[in-house]
Design a protein that fits this description.
Elements (H helix, E strand, L loop, with lengths): L6 E7 L10 H12 L11 E4 L6 H14 L5 E11 L6 E3 L9 H7 L1 E2 H9 L5 E8 L1 E2 L28 H8 L6 E4 L7 E2 L8 H10 L11 E3 H22 L10 E2 L8 E4 L2 H6 L31 E6 L13 H7 L6 E6 L7 H7 L2 H19 L5 E7 L2 H11 L2 H4 L2 E7 L8 H7 L12 H14 L6 E6 L8 H5 L7 E3 L16 H10 L11 H7 L3 H8 L8 H13 L3 H10 L1 H5 L1 H17 L3 H21 L2 H17 L4 H15 L6 H13 L3 H14 L2 H19 L7 H10 L2
Parallel strand pairs: 1-2, 1-3, 3-6, 6-8, 7-9, 13-14, 13-15, 15-16, 16-17, 17-18
Antiparallel strand pairs: 3-4, 4-5, 8-11, 10-12
Helix pairs in contact: 1-6, 2-4, 4-5, 5-11, 6-7, 7-10, 11-12, 19-20, 20-21, 23-24, 23-25, 24-25, 25-26, 25-27, 26-27, 27-28, 27-29, 28-30, 29-30
Length: about 750
């Protein structure tokens, strides 16, 4: 098998004089796997092993310096350090072999390797495909009588030695370059990294070695072991092993939870899946030049702005379907240009676009997603962002739950740094159970408005603040948000903190210019100026909040004089009061509704979307009525754009609701026929694509869906995907996420 010719490694293992720790065997075993052509295939000349006296300050920094000379932007780099990490003298550092017992402070400093020095060397590398494994904070054996932190003869917990090396995740945070490198530490702060008495390797390194040999999972999709698989395996596997042993030995304080920085920007290759497994699973042979996810992708923005003297930080936290540097569109750049924001550094916080959300969620799933990322935010504020005196948070969607959870979990000294919290489209009161089941992945069931997670979060929040916040709080929601209701956004907070902005769930955080509601709300909040809410359609706001009576009382007496928009608001309000028959009667009798097929289609679409969210035969039949009537009138008036619009919706409903493929085909053919007479535009392309899909002409459908995707904005893409996905899965009787056409639709409209 070919070597990974541009793969490089530095592996460090240390035997200390001042305690019993000896990690040289761990380092040697790692190197043996890296050299094995059947497993990792690293060229021997690209691997630097540092043990004994070579693992001193000079050896470590010298190896990092040479690494810069040997690597380029296409290189992958594997760093492994097994030894002590410490925070003595208020500086995070590695403890190399040159550290001796009895050194004074100055002697100690001359021999250490600081986290900043390692970080600077990593920053000097051109590659972003770098993984750093830190197996720090060891114990010689979990079952030994000399176990530190156990119980004395009277059963009382022993006090921890304040000089223990217990800063693994803090050290990892200080090494994290914000360039998207992957950093994995064997344990978190105030935990130890254990070695079980029967093993030759530490627990962390033992399972890392297993993962590199493909023993971490039973299914593979390609012939490589990748970093996300390994990270997830270590996080899932190590804690329960220690928990089982701790229970047996009655040592509840024995905990080891690996730390993983969540901003992983490339699921790059660590090793080959062994040939025996490849043959068994009929996997292809590894390529001479393996492809990585980062190849050909645009560069990720991991920092929007960072300046030397800034003491204010604005953090942008996205939801689980977003990407750290992209979710908020132009907002960071517009803020950077505004002189009122001078002195503010700005950074994204969260997942990268290089990692499929589904893949990320398989590692950090459901409520655990919120807990893990909130915990990561806590450690970031403590270590990575320690220089800032004030921290403002702008959070979108489930990112707002992360922010709230983290703020509650902060130590008081760090919580006091929070100056502003802006929650945009956040389901703070949870997601309605019915909508959760229909629209959200089932693994998020704990996000239910009736679930323990939301209930617990709200109780803790209320107990701590009682509505009196030590920071400026703004909570924004939209009447057009298709996922999160205004009720869920607003209910936990007093009216003074609530603001209604324009836009749907994803679109609300992608303003087109400085006049958009979302941008103006953020800027005015951070600069302490008044936010003049531009979204002044009080009728629609009242509808969304359930105050339908006010709208009906205002508009019903004027029903004959209402224009199309007024008529829409009246009908929607009547629907909200379960006065559908009255709404239909008004539409049937109103002169505008009788002639305006677009209005009929819009209302038909409302019922169709209601059916897709919460299947109701009544909603489906109502949608049919509107579309059929609109199609009839459009045909009489020879309004071809309206004809294909209504016909394609009837094709959809015929399939999805009635499973009537004969009618589906009839309406699809009608839509295609009249579309030929209409000018090209986004909705024509989407219609032609959908019609061809129903006629089983998938290649033509792909062509036109791609053309539609190139013209569509976020809002249109979501709408087109909703129809296309529901239509295709009903037509083919499949919801397989690996289906090629399903994958195509996702790539075109949800990426």
């Amino acid at each position: 098998m070919s070597l990974l010719t541009n793969a490089h490694a530095i592996v460090i293992g240390i035997k200390y004089e001042f305690d019993k720790l000896d990690t040289t065997q761990d380092a040697k075993d790692i190197v043996a796997l890296l050299k094995d052509e059947t497993i990792c295939g690293y060229p021997p000349e690209n691997i630097t092993l540092l043990t004994g006296e070579n693992a001193d300050r000079k050896g470590i920094l010298g190896a990092l310096k040479k690494l810069k000379e040997k690597t380029d932007e296409d290189s992958s780099v594997f760093l492994y350090y097994s030894g002590h990490g410490d925070y003595q003298l208020e500086t995070f550092h590695f403890v190399p072999s040159g550290i001796k017992k009895g050194m004074n402070a100055e002697e100690y400093k001359r021999e250490w390797v600081t986290a900043k020095e390692v970080r600077d060397h990593i920053n000097a590398l051109k590659t972003r495909r770098l993984i750093f494994f830190m197996d720090c904070c060891h114990s010689t054996g979990i079952a030994s009588e000399s176990f530190v932190g156990g119980q004395d003869s009277e059963g009382k917990d022993q006090k921890k030695d304040q000089n223990e090396f217990t800063q693994a995740d803090g050290l990892a945070q200080k090494v994290d370059t914000e360039k998207g490198i992957s950093v994995i530490a064997s344990c978190k702060e105030n935990q130890k990294s254990y070695k079980l008495d029967a093993d030759k390797n530490s627990l962390f390194t033992k399972h890392l070695l297993m993962a590199l040999q493909g023993q971490h999972q039973t299914e593979f999709v390609d012939p490589y072991v990748r970093i996300l698989q390994v990270a997830g395996y270590l996080m899932r596997t190590i804690p329960p092993i220690l928990e089982k042993i701790a229970t047996k030995w009655k040592m509840p304080h024995v905990v080891q939870e690996p730390y993983v920085n969540l901003e992983l920007y490339d699921d790059f290759i660590l090793s080959y899946v062994p040939k025996k497994i490849r043959d068994k699973m009929a996997l292809p042979e590894p390529e001479d030049t393996p492809k990585t996810q980062a190849k050909g992708k645009k560069e990720v923005r991991t920092v929007f702005r960072e300046t030397e003297g800034a003491n204010n930080l604005l953090l942008f936290i996205h939801g689980f379907s977003g990407e750290a540097g992209d979710t908020f569109g132009k907002i960071p750049d517009m803020l950077i240009k505004d002189p009122k924001m001078d002195g503010w550094d700005m950074k994204p916080f969260g997942y990268s676009q290089f990692i499929d959300p589904e893949l990320g969620k398989d590692i950090w799933a459901g409520v655990k997603d919120v807990d893990r990322i909130a915990e990561y935010l806590c450690t970031s504020v403590r270590y990575k962002f320690v220089k800032y005196d004030r921290i403002a948070v702008v959070a979108h969607s489930l990112g707002g739950l992360i922010a709230q959870r983290a703020i509650l979990d902060f130590r008081e000294e760090f919580r006091s740094k929070i100056s502003h919290v802006i929650l945009l489209g956040t389901p703070s009161n949870g997601i309605e159970p019915e909508k959760l089941t229909k629209l959200w992945n089932n693994k998020y069931k704990e996000m239910s408005s009736e679930g323990a997670f939301i209930g617990g979060l709200r109780k803790e929040w209320d107990d701590r603040y009682h509505g009196n916040y030590p920071f400026t709080l703004r909570v924004a929601g939209s009447v057009d948000d298709e996922f999160v209701t205004l009720d869920s956004c607003f209910t936990p907070f007093d009216a003074d903190h609530r603001f209604t902005i324009d836009g749907r769930h994803l679109g609300m955080v992608k303003p087109k210019n400085e006049e958009d509601d979302c941008y103006r709300l953020i800027l005015s909040t951070l600069t302490d100026t008044e936010f003049a809410n531009q979204y002044t359609n009080n009728e629609e706001i009242n509808i969304a909040l359930g105050k339908y009576d006010a709208v009906v009382k205002k508009l019903l007496p004027e029903k004959e004089a209402l224009d199309k928009n007024g008529l829409k608001r009246l009908v929607f309000a009547l629907e909200g009061l379960d006065r559908r028959e009255e709404a239909l009667k008004i539409l049937d009798e109103h002169p505008s509704a009788q002639e305006d097929t677009d209005l009929m289609g819009i209302i038909g679409g409302r019922y169709k979307r209601a059916y897709l969210k919460f299947p109701s035969q009544e909603d489906a039949e109502t949608a049919f009525v509107y579309y059929e009537l609109a199609l009839e009138k459009s045909t009489t008036n020879k309004n071809y754009e309206q004809i294909y619009y209504h016909a394609i919706n009837l094709a959809f409903l015929s399939l999805v609701v009635k499973d009537n493929k004969t009618d589906m085909t009839k309406y699809a053919e009608q839509a295609l026929h009249v579309a030929k007479n209409c000018p090209d535009n986004l909705w024509k392309y989407a219609t032609v694509a959908e019609a061809n899909m129903y006629l089983n002409k998938l290649e033509t459908a792909r062509k036109y869906y791609k053309m539609a995707s190139e013209q569509a904005g976020i809002r249109e893409k979501i709408s087109i995907h909703l129809n296309a996905y529901a239509g295709y899965t009903s037509l083919m009787q499949t919801d397989n996420p690996e289906d090629p056409f399903v994958v195509f639709l996702k790539e075109q409209f949800l990426s």
